[in-house]
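A further point concerns the way the authors explain their paired sequence and structure data. Since the whole study asks how a given chain folds, the encoding of that fold should be made plain. A single example would do more here than another paragraph of explanation. An entry of this sort, consisting of the sequence and the corresponding backbone structure tokens, reads as follows:

_____
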Amino acid sequence: MTVDDIKQVAVIGSGTMGNGIAQVFAQSGFGVILIDLSEEHLNRAVSTITGSMERLVKKERMSADDKDAALSRLATSTSLAQAKTAEVVVEAVTENLDVKSKIFGELESICGPETIFASNTSSLPITQLANTTSRADKFIGMHFMNPVPIMKLVEVIRGLATSQETYDLTAELSKRLGKTPVEVNDYPGFIANRILMPMINEAIYAHMEGVGTVEAIDEVMKLGMGHPMGPLFLADFIGLDVCLAILEVMHDGLGDPKYRPCPLLKKMVQAGYLGRKSGRGFYTYDK
């Protein structure tokens, strides 16, 4: 199979990452079926995608006709069975190994034997996820960055059994989406989060220990290190629950205490202070 053979892509999960992934595939000329558990989630995702495209039109980065064409290539469903016609399935559900494994186990009996399975996981082992299927050679990690329509990077993660053909196809597919694929091997956190999350975690420790206020820590990293946003603001943007989940995967998988999640991070997640999506994290947001 080549990229030209890919006509239909199924995206599982319509949250922040899933709807962004569905948008870039639809904009790039692929038919997309966006699948989630509820119509409410899907309607919200389509509204988000439409709003994102309308902003691109206003900025003259997309024509109104291209927007309408892209939206016409997007369909939604609450049935996983609708993935059966897809040549590629991209999973983008919650960062939970059991949930992802269950979905891939179900997809195994739905999709044809040539279908490529890709996970957007930000930290979980691709090799372990692939083992829930009988197509480990056609299983790969495709880790997009948030916000997906803007960020250029895709970490393309090889599992132990991922074939060269699957890697080459996924790298070329990423380029068709206007992204830059970077090859990564299968270790907890991959590259992006293995480097980013300890920095965020250390910033939370610095705040907890009274080294500086939230604003001070973020200003130092922006003005002194040239970061576009401070680590605590970035943590809110990612979601504190997501940050915690990634740190726990790295702490468990690598066994190094330097990845131990800060107690303040755990406490905030327990309180429901998840960042921007909940209206409160290190900063307060207008929902």
